[in-house]
């Protein structure tokens, strides 16, 4: 009986940890899709040689790696930052 009371909080903590891990899953995927699309547009417009474009490409690659390892929060943040650099690239900065 006492073992049940010990196992219940541990099980609850594990389940909460698993749920928190997937909080950013859809945001990560959406940000990455948008970033890749915007990067393609920037390349088509001739901004592929800018420093901001290179930074964005590096960030998107890192975000994709984090997505593969289920580090969705970091993926989302990197993809969002990449989108900033893509905008900077298209603005000529």
TrEMBL record:
<feature type="signal peptide">
    <location>
        <begin position="1"/>
        <end position="19"/>
    </location>
</feature>
<protein>
    <recommendedName>
        <fullName>Lipoprotein</fullName>
    </recommendedName>
</protein>
<keyword id="KW-0732">Signal</keyword>
């Amino acid at each position: 009986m006492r073992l049940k009371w010990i196992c219940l909080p541990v099980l609850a903590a594990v389940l909460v940890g698993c749920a928190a891990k997937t909080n950013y899953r859809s945001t990560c995927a959406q940000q990455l899709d948008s970033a890749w699309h915007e990067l393609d547009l920037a390349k088509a417009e001739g901004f592929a040689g800018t420093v901001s474009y290179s930074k964005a490409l590096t960030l998107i690659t890192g975000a994709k790696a984090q997505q593969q390892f289920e580090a969705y929060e970091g993926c989302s943040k990197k993809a969002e930052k990449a989108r900033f650099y893509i905008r900077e690239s298209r603005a000529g900065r």
